[in-house]
Specification:
alpha/beta, D-Maltodextrin-Binding Protein, domain 2, seven-stranded mixed sheet, single chain
Length: 333
């Protein structure tokens, strides 16, 4: 996926209204007010999961800074580190943390670590067709269903008694290996085990949802922000016998939902030179009330002001308060 903001506006699919339960933004976040006008080209390369959200930010940013042209390329988190390291992108959106090898290669080239900005919180959801009678699943069951170490499963083995599903095999959907979602799910849900060969891999998050929506026997994993009315989100129990937990903001913030994760934007930050004004303003937008409203609009959960303060500090920026935010000087002189 490649979209350009500035002259050509990319198509954005906003699914946040389908998120379960009320979602709130920390009251300390302030509306975005640029500290200075900026212009130039900005390019992001990385996560498909974050692509809609980055496009929303890009639209907001280009409205505030008409002289900025933003290109968003979303082919998977694994494409981000190399693009950042080679100077092909100013930001690398990723749905997982950088792997040790990726980080080590960056350090070897620059002599310092890349900075990970936590920009949103996601719950990786387990989806079934909207007509499926199953309502919940445990983490051990998820591993059995998706892992090559588990048997080929029928719906009856998950407790489904409806004869339309009971003896039918579970049809599996997931992401491809270029995706950070693929790696996160493999590590956390499968304990590092390989996927069953029968998993139908989609290059994008929406593709998983489309597959499950069109398959009455389908089950797949994808970010909560990609939910549609044609699929059902299962509640997930951390262990067998535990209460199953709905993927909500509260459950994610308190560590109750076992498949919650941070979403990141990586940046090449040299303490000696600091962030250039273009990148600095984009980061300020992300950690503004407007930026975090876009997080909700795209179906994810906003970060806390504590995280914003910590991560803005990592790149030499201060989290603004209402009194500290300056109005941009007029161009009239």
């Amino acid at each position: 996926m490649k979209s350009v903001i500035g002259g050509i506006v990319g198509v954005i699919t906003c699914l946040g209204l389908l998120a379960a339960g009320p979602v709130e933004i920390d009251r300390k976040f302030q509306p975005y007010k640029p500290e200075q006008r900026v212009a130039g080209d900005l390019r992001t390369v990385g996560s498909d999961t974050l692509s809609n959200l980055v496009l929303l930010w890009a639209q907001q940013f280009s409205s505030a800074h008409p002289g900025v042209k933003i290109q968003v390329e979303a082919k998977g988190s694994s494409t981000g580190p190399a693009a950042l390291m080679e100077g092909q992108a100013q930001f690398a959106p990723m749905s997982r943390a950088m792997k040790n090898k990726e980080r080590d290669e960056f350090i070897k080239k620059f002599g310092y670590e890349p900075v990970a900005l936590r920009v949103a919180i996601d719950c990786l959801a387990i989806y079934v067709n909207k007509d499926c009678p199953l309502d919940e699943i445990s983490m051990p069951q998820i591993r059995e269903v998706f892992s090559v170490d588990g048997p080929d499963m029928t719906w009856g083995q998950l407790g489904v008694t409806d004869p339309r599903w009971r003896d039918r095999p579970i049809s599996l959907y997931g992401r491809n290996a270029a995706s950070g979602t693929y790696g996160f799910f493999k590590s956390v849900a499968l304990g590092g085990s390989d996927y069953k060969p029968s998993v139908k891999e989609a290059p994008g998050s929406a593709g998983v949802i489309q597959g499950v929506a069109s398959d009455p026997l389908g089950m797949g994993y994808s970010g909560i922000g990609f939910r549609t009315p044609d699929v059902k989100v299962l509640h997930v129990a951390p262990e067998t016998g535990d209460e199953a937990v709905e993927p909500t903001q509260e459950a994610a913030n308190y560590g109750e939902y076992p498949l919650a994760r941070n979403l990141y934007i990586y940046v090449n930050y040299d303490r000696n030179s600091g962030l250039d004004p273009l990148r600095a303003e984009f980061v300020r937008l992300i950690y503004s009330r407007d930026g975090q409203e876009s997080v909700i609009k795209d179906g994810f959960f906003p970060v806390s002001s504590r995280i914003a303060i910590e991560d803005m500090g990592k790149v030499g920026l201060e989290f603004p308060t209402s009194k500290e935010q300056a109005t941009v000087p007029s161009n009239d002189g």
